[in-house]
Structure prediction request, 397 residues.
Amino acid sequence: MNLHEYQGKEILSSFGVRIQRGIVAQNAHEAVAAAKQLTTETGTSWYVIKAQVHAGGRGKGGGVKLAKNLQEVESIAEQIIGMNLITPQTSAEGKKVHQVLVAEDVYYPGDSEPDEFYMSVLLNRTTGRNMIMYSTEGGMDIETVAEETPHLIFTEEIDPSVGILPFQARRVAFNLGLSGTAFKEMTKFVMALYTAYVKSDASLFEINPVLKTSDDKIMAVDAKVTLDDNALYRHKNYVDMRDIREENPIEVEAKEVGLNYVDLDGNVGCMVNGAGLAMATMDLIKQAGGEPANFLDVGGTADAKRVETAFRIILKDPNVKAILINIFGGIVRCDRVAQGVVDAYKNMGDAINIPIIVRLQGTNADIAKELIDNSGLDVQSAVQFQEAADKVQAVLA
Ligand code: GDP
Ligand code: MN
Prediction:
């Protein structure tokens, strides 16, 4: 589950990580009230107004702006809330902004070259250990840094049975070129950040930039936080942080009915049982000259009701020109799946107006093929993988 910046910062702060303080606002009126409250709490007289959407690069897209008085807070909030924010990380249509974070300005005037660092905590899948990835080159695209100056990216791996040790946090501070108060602040920051990552069951923390203020404080100015869905049951207070306005509506609906669905850009819809077979099927579609429109794992029970739900979800995507059903019948026999496909198809009447190719393999595959072939429906059957690919190619041509 992805979080908004303001939610990520709330979690960080609750574990003692210093953050740029801010208050979320739903409209310009609330933004002004938030600014006033911030001034009372922090003494700040300048503010940054930051669009809250699930995408990075907001600064580049005009979603992060400095306000030097309350009138500017109001006019900037008015301008950002409701806008369609287009950043390098959104689609071409952009993302609608529903709320802004009004934050204290922490880039003090006169500080011409603020020190911005990059820091993330994530799992290194090769070693099976969490690592802290960090760089002196904060504030910009880490992908660009990785490409152009990879020697400026450092990593620190943490032994899960021991946890982070103080010398590791000191090494981070040292490699970032810090000394004195800033050095001590950074070691505290790193220890707290890593603890927050582990205790919140996150799968990604990305703090870009981490700022060293001109008075040597270290703080998180931005926060991209992804929580592990499978651990959410341990964090009842985080569950409400989900903002489905930020999620793909078809994916949300699929999740509600228990289908494992990921929307993609292609033209061939897939219905498959098992994640591994789903991946292989997507490769097959590409080889046949198509592009998968989705990843869809219907799971173990591919009965008529489930197949019908899957059909309806796939057909919501207007780009779909054909559907490939690829089911391995082990415990669920192929003939039952085939019957499910036929029943679902008949139930849906005219809703299906594109070619369907069904490949069933496993127990009773031959009976299943007969069932499909004799159904009188516009459904083509295949037994071999290649056969299915050829049929997809033929209907796309
Ligand atoms: P992103 O563009 O989505 O990554 O959003 P960030 O939260 O990283 O903000 C983008 C940029 O806005 C940062 O890299 C900073 O340069 C700038 N920024 C953020 N907070 C402040 C602030 O308090 N004062 C000023 N002047 N600039 C800020
Ligand atoms: Mn950022």
Remarks:
- Residues 20, 48, 50, 56-59, 64, 66, 105-107, 139, 208-209, 221-222 surround guanosine-5'-diphosphate (ligand 1) (CB under 6 Å).
- The chain has three domains: 1-20+109-246, 21-105, 248-396.
- The chain has a mean pLDDT of 93.
